[in-house]
Amino acid sequence: MKHLLSVSDLDAAAATGVLDTADRLKQALLGREVRKLPTLRGRTVITMFYEDSTRTRVSFEIAGKWMSADTVNVSAKGSSVSKGESLRDTSLTLSAMGADCVIVRHPASGAAHRLAGWVDRDHATTGTHTSVVNAGDGTHEHPTQALLDAATLRDRLGGIAGRRIGIVGDVLHSRVARSNVLLLATLGADVVLVAPPTLLPTGVEEWPCRVAAELDAELPALDAVMMLRVQAERMHGSFFPSAREYAIGYGLSADRAALLPDHAVVLHPGPMVRGMEIAPSVADSPSAAILAQVSNGVHVRMAVLYHLLAGAPE
Amino acid sequence: MSDLLISNARPYGGDAVDLLVRDGVVTEIGRGLDAPDGVEVLDAGGHVLLPGFVDLHTHLREPGGEESEDVATGSAAAALGGYTAVFAMPNTDPVADTAVVVEHVRRRGEEVGLVDVHPVGAVTVGLEGVKMAELGTMARSRAQVRMFSDDGRCVHDPLVMRRALEYASALEVVIAQHAEDHRLTAGAQAHEGVVASRLGLAGWPATAEETIVARDCALAREAGAALHVCHVSSARTIDVLRAAKAAGVRVSAEVTPHHLLLTDAALTSYDPVHKVNPPLRTGADTRAMREALAEGVIDVVATDHAPHAAQYKDTEWAAARPGMLGLQTALSVVVHTMLEPGLLDWRGVARVLSERPAEIAGLPDQGRPIAEGEPANFALVDPDGAWTVRGAKLASRAANTPYEGMRLPATVVATVLRGRITTTQGEVRS
Questions:
Q1: Rounded to a whole number, what is the distance in Å from the CA of A110 to chain B's nearest CA?
Q2: Are residues B208 and B236 in the same domain?
Q3: Which residue range or ranges hold the Aspartate/ornithine carbamoyltransferase Asp/Orn-binding domain (chain A) (predicted)?
Q4: Which of A10, A69, A101, A191 could form a disulfide with A40 if both were Cys (CB 3.0 to 4.6 A apart)?
C-alpha cells in the first residue's frame, strides 16, 4: 500500500489486515507505562489541514508520536497557503523536505488523489517517496474514519459480515457516509441509508446499499446505527424546513433509541449537535460507542501509518 | 487576393478534380487544368476537399488572458484545424462589450491573417447580466459584430434576455445563450449523476440547461428573434429544441466535439483537464448528441476551444478553471463520432462544420459551396491520416487537451483562406 486515498484502495483482506494491526497495537500499548513504540523512529509525518479539525488532526498526531515518528503539523492559516501558494507547490515542498507521509485534509474532493499524483510524478526531483493519507477530502471520502468505525463495530458486535448497519442523515455532503458505505459493504455488512430525499445524492441507487425513508421502521432490525452530523450551513439551504422538523424525522431521540435491539451500537463521527441529530441521553448511554470510536481512531491511524511506512506485517 | 491551382482534390469526397483560383475566387473546376505562369500548385493528393470550417465558439483569450492563448496562437490552431473563420467569445479582460474592444480583436485577427476573426460582443455590460451592452454600436462598428453572447455566464434575468432578443431582432444579429440556471448549479463541479455522487463532486443537473433553453425559446418566439444555443450537453435539451423548431422558433444549436465523444467516466482520475462547463455527461447523452446532429436538431459543431495555462489546470478539481482545447481536434472527433459510424457523409461534415455555422452567423463569404465563382476557403482532409494527440505539440499556448495520447482519425493536410495557403502538412505558412 503506497497511499490511502479511498477505502476502495482496500479489499476485504487488506482492510481486515489494517484492523488486525490496530488490535495488536492496542494490545501492545495496554500494559505499557510509556506509551511509545519505536516502529517509526526517524520517519517524518506531516499533517496538512486546510479545514478546521480537532479530533482527526490530533488523532493522527498522537498516532505518529506513539509510533516514535517525527510529527509536524501544518495548517492552511499562517502558512504559504495564505500567500496563494498552489496545493501542488505546497505538497512538493513538503516532499522535498523529506516527508515520508503527508496526511491531508482539504475542502476539495479529490485533493488527496491529486497530491499523490504530484508527489509520485516528481519523486525523483524531491528525492522522497512520500505516502499520502486522505484525512477527508471535500464531500468525497474519509477512509480512516470508516476504518475506525469498522474497528469499533468489530469490537462491539464481534464481526461485521452479515450485520445490518443504518447510516442516518446528511449523506449528500458526507465523506464519512461515502467511505462507510463502501468499506462496510466490502466487509460484508448490510447497509441501509435513511435520509430526506434532499440529502441523498443523485445516483445513490448505484451504491452497494439500500435506501429507506422511514427511520422507525428500520431501527428494530439494526445492529448499529450511525448518526451523521448536520452542518449548520445546511439549515439555510432549503434541504429541510427546520432543525425541529429534522430532529422529529431523523434525530435519534430516547424514544426512538428504545426501538433498537439491546445489543445495538450507536455511533457518531462527531462533532455532535446534541438535541438535533442525537439526544444527549442517547449519546451518553451505554449503547453509544462514541468515545470508543475516538480511542480506536488512534490505533487505526497507527496501523495505517505502520502499513504505509513500515510495510504490512507478515 | 491570391492565385492558386489545387490539383487532384475530391470535393466532399467525390471524384477528383482540379480547381483554379484567381484573386481568391474559384474560376474554373475541371480535369487536367494547367497552372498559368507564376501560379502556385497545391497537390491535393486525392484527399477530401471541404469548405473551410467556421467555429461559432472560440476563446482566443486576447486581451487579458495571453498566458493561455492570444489571437496569433489561437489563429494558428484554428488554421491547422481546417478553420477559415472563428468567432471569438467576449469573456476577455477587458470584456468585449464596447466597439473599442471588438474592433481591437478584429484588427488583431487581420494582422495575424491566418483566419477571419469575428469578435462576439457581450450581451450585457461586463457580462454582469444587468445592463444591455451597446449592441447596435458594436454591430455597426468596423468589427461588424453579428453574434452576441455572455458565454461563460447565462443571461439569467428573463427580462434582460427578452429585451436583448427584441433589440437584436432589429439589428439582424443573433443572441447566443450559455444555457445554465446558476441557481440550480451553485457550486457545481460535474454532471449530476452516478459518477459525481461517488466522487463527491457537487452536481450540475441537466435540468439547469433544459429549463433555460425552454424559457429562451419561448422568449425568442415572442420576439421573432434569432436565438443560438451554445454547447448543448443534455439529451433532454434536444427534446425542447425539436419542439421549438417544429413550432417555427428561430433557434439554432451547437454541440462541442467533447460532448460528442467524452463522458463523465473520465472524471475518476480527478484530473481537471476533463473539467468543462457544461460538464461531460453520460454515454446516453453523447449518443443523443450524435443522433440530433445527424438529424439536424442540433445544427452545428462548435469547439468551445478554451485554453487554460497549466497553473489554472494543474490544481485540485474544484480550483481548476473549466474548459479544454478543441480547434485542432474537432474534425477528427467529428470523423470518429459521425462519419465513421455513418451518421454523416462528407457533405454532412461540411454542413455542420462550415455551411450552417456561416449561415447562422450571417457570413456571406464563408461556408459556401465548392463551385466556380465562390470564395476559395478550403480545408483539405486526409481521411486515412490517423494521428496521436499530444497537447504539447498543438499550436495553442496552453496544452489542456482531453485527448492526450488518444489516436484519432483524419488529418487536416492544408487550409486555404481566399486562395492563400495558411497551413500545409501541419505547418503554418506565414
A1: 6
A2: yes
A3: 162-308
A4: A69
The Cα B88–Cα B101 span in angstroms is 12
Give the domain range for residue B40.
4-47+413-423
CB of B201 within 8 Å of any CB in chain A? yes
Same domain, B61 and B34: no
| Span B383-402, average pLDDT | 98
Residue type, B395: A
For A85-100, the DSSP string reads --HHHHHHHHHHTT-S
Indicate the pairing of strand B4-11 with strand B411-417. unpaired
Averaged pLDDT, B62-79: 98
In this complex, which of B194, B201, B270 lies closest to A206 when CB atoms are compared?
B194
Looking at residue A261, its pLDDT comes to 98
User: Within 10 Å of residue A145's Cβ, how many Cβ atoms?
Assistant: 27
Residue B116, C-beta contacts closer than 8 angstroms, at least 6 positions apart: B84, B85, B86, B109, B363, B366, B417
Reported confidence tier of residue A314, pLDDT bands at 50, 70, 90: very low
Average pLDDT, integer, range B386-408? 98
Q: What are the strands of the beta sheet with B53-58, ordered from one edge?
A: B53-58, B83-88, B116-119
Secondary structure of residue A26 in the 3-state scheme: helix
Domains located in chain A, CATH noted = 7-141+294-309 (3.40.50.1370), 143-290 (3.40.50.1370)
Domain assignment of residue B377, yes or no: no
Q: How far apart are CA B425 and CA A72, in angstroms?
A: 56
- Smallest Cβ–Cβ distance between A110 and the set B193, B199, B203 belongs to B199
For the four alpha carbons of B245, B248, B249 and B254, in that order, the dihedral sign comes to: positive
**Nearest residue of A to residue B269, measured between CA atoms:** A113
Ligand-binding site membership of A83 (annotated) = yes
A87/B319 touch (CB, cutoff 8 Å), yes or no? yes
Q: Give the pLDDT confidence of A106-164 residue by residue, as tens digits.
A: 999 999 999 999 999 999 999 999 999 999 999 999 999 999 999 999 999 999 999 99
Query: The whole model's pTM is what?
Result: 0.95
CA gap A270, A206 in Å, rounded: 27
**Chain B contact probe: residue of A105, A142, A202 with most B CBs at under 10 A:** A202
Task: Check whether the bond before B278 is cis (ω within 30° of 0).
Answer: yes
The pLDDT tens digits for B322-340 are 999 999 999 999 999 999 9
Q: What is the complex's ipTM, to 2 decimals? A: 0.93
Q: How confident is the model at residue B354 (pLDDT cuts 50, 70, 90)?
A: very high
- Taking the C-alpha atoms of residue B245 and residue B255, their distance in angstroms, rounded to an integer, is 16
For residues B159-186, b (16+ Cβ closer than 10 Å) or e, as one string?
ebbbbbbebbbebebbbbbbbbbeebbe
Question: Same domain, yes or no, for B38 and B161?
Answer: no
Contact B200 A137 (CB under 8 A): yes
> Which residue, among B337, B338, B309, has the nearest Cα to B321 in the 3D structure?
B309
Same domain, B130 and B163: yes
